[in-house]
Amino acid sequence: MASFTQVTKRKRARRQKNAGHARKVKQSQHSTLSYDDLFAKCGEPGEPAPATSEQNKS
User: Fold this and answer.
1) Cβ neighbours for 35, distance < 8 A, ≥ 6 positions apart
2) CA–CA separation, 43 vs 45, rounded Å?
3) Under 8 Å CB-to-CB from 8, ≥6 apart: which residues?
4) Are 44 and 51 in contact (CB under 8 A)?
5) Chain-centre distance of CA 48, in angstroms?
């Protein structure tokens, strides 16, 4: 059986690795826009797209 020191060392390394992975997963979920957010400015399907601010200035 491994010594208590080796068990503790491996346990700590595994917990840190899992925590880093969980952090990256959480970060990636926030950086990805939902379908609705991504296409919100395009308007409803079948209708013309809303005018942009540049077209309003002219």
Assistant:
1) none
2) 7
3) none
4) no
5) 31
Q: How far is CA 40 from the centre of its chain?
A: 19
Pair of tokens at residue 23: 């952090």
Residues 5, 11, 17, 20: is their CA dihedral positive or negative? negative
Do residues 42 and 49 lie in contact, with contact meaning Cβ atoms separated by under 8 Å?
A: yes
Handedness of CA 12, 16, 18, 22 (dihedral sign): positive
> Is residue 56 scored above 60 in pLDDT?
no
What mean pLDDT comes out for the span 23-47? 83
* Predicted structure pTM score: 0.49
**Is the CB of residue 43 less than 8 Å from the CB of residue 36?**
no
